[in-house]
Amino acid sequence: MDAHIVAWIAGAPAAIATASVATRAQLLPDVIDISSIPTGSGVLSLALVSYGALRRFDPDRMARLSLLGTLLSGLITSAVLLIAVIAGVIS
User: pTM of the prediction?
Assistant: First the structure.
């Protein structure tokens, strides 16, 4: 088995655990700390770049996948956070 594949397989659970720990929302009158938006932005971007690497896309196409993933998942995460605030789940 290729060493790079083993590293990817070993790193995937660590990345998921890091993303789950880093996701938090704390909305207070004086402090606004929302780390779920950058975390959410990176998740889809990482998934798309990993897909592109498995398909052996050229670097320019990989860069476009990364930007697309960051944009889409940032918008999705922001929308979910806004819906949660409106619904009263996060106060």
Answer: 0.54
